[in-house]
Amino acid sequence: MYRIKRETMESIILASNNTYPNEFFSLLGGDKKTGIIDELVVVPATYGRNYTAVKSWLIPIDSRVIGSVHSHPSPNAYPSMADLSSFTKFGDFHLIAAYPYDLKSIAAFDSRGKQQEFIVV
Ligand SMILES: [Zn+2]
């Protein structure tokens, strides 16, 4: 199970609120061996309502990238078809922060869209 550092989770919640009503997107960085996620790797992206296009060719190849996080400006925390196709590009652990962006509205998925458990440490 992945463990997410509290400061990282707080940054996700803050960024989701700051970006609302648009989507926030970032990659998640951490230690693949221990499964601890401790940083946001912010990447160039085009934001819009219900729309985030990531310029994936601009993302540095970083061995600390474990997955991604993005926000949904709605209470729906489930991945869209577009989300599932982007999940396969960015690792195997993906958070979706749904409105109103608290711990209960954040869900995690693997790159196939299967829900994953996580803990905040
Ligand atoms: Zn989405």
The class by helix and strand makeup works out as alpha/beta
Number of strands: 10
Strand and helix order: EHEEEEEHEEEE
Which architecture would the CATH scheme give at its second level?
Answer: 3-Layer(aba) Sandwich
Estimate the helix proportion, in percent: 10-25%
Radius of gyration, in angstroms, nearest whole number: 13 Å
Explain this structure to me?
This protein has 2 helices and 10 strands; from the N terminus they run βαβββββαββββ. It has 121 residues and is α/β, with parallel strands linked by helices. The protein has one domain: Cytidine Deaminase, domain 2. The strands form 2 sheets. An 8-stranded mixed beta sheet has the order 9-8-7-6-2-3-1-10. Strands 4-5 form a two-stranded antiparallel ribbon. The model has no long low-confidence stretch (mean pLDDT 89). Bound molecules: zinc ion (ZN). Residues 70, 72, 79-80, 83, 96 line the site of zinc ion. Zinc ion (ZN) binds next to strand 6.
List keywords for this structure.
Cytidine Deaminase, domain 2; binds zinc ion; eight-stranded mixed sheet; two-stranded antiparallel ribbon; 2 helices; alpha/beta; 121 residues
